[in-house]
Prior knowledge:
The protein has about 180 residues and is an alpha/beta fold. It has seven helices and five strands, in the order βαβαβαββαααα.
Amino acid sequence: MKVGYARTSTIEQAAGFEAQQRDLEVSGVEKIYKEQVSSVGERNQLEAALDFVRDGDTIVVTKLDRLARSTAHLLNIIDQLENKNVGLRILDFGGSEVDTHSPTGKLMLTMFGAFGQFEREMMLERQREGIAKAKTEGKYKGRKPTAMAKASEVKKLRAEGIGPTEIAVKLGIGRASVYRILAS
C-alpha cells in the first residue's frame, strides 16, 4: 500500500498543501496523512502514518523537507521504516524521484539529507550575520516589545484597584502576562 504524508508549517500555505495532496493522489497513494504544523513541533499525523504502515508498504512524500527536520531525524525515520520493511519514496528530489527500496536510493537520500541540513545551517548563520550587521548599523529593531514593556502601566492600573483580567483587556495583553508582571 502507498501511504502519503503532506505537511506545511502554517495554515497560510494552503496552495502548497493542496499541491502536495494532489501530487500524492496522482502518484497512486491510497491513504494520505496530512497536517499543518511546524517541523519542530509535535507531528501526530507523521507518527500515525509511521505506525500505520506494514511490511511491503511505501511512505510517499512530495519533498524531503516535508518529512524530516534534520539528517538525524531522517535517519531515524528511515530506520523505523526499514525495521518494518517499508520503503520511502520522494516524488520531487531535486528534479528526480528517489525510492529507498534500492541501495542507490538509500545512499542518495542520506547524502541529500545531509546537504539539506548543511544548507539550513548556512542559511541560519547568514541570518545571524545579517542581524549582527544591522544592529551595528542601527537598523535592527528586533522583535515587537513584549507585555513587559507595559509593566509600569500594569502596576499603575493595579494600584488604582483594577483587576488583572480588566487590565489585560485594557492593555491588549494576556492575563498571564499581567500576573507575571505583578509578581515581579
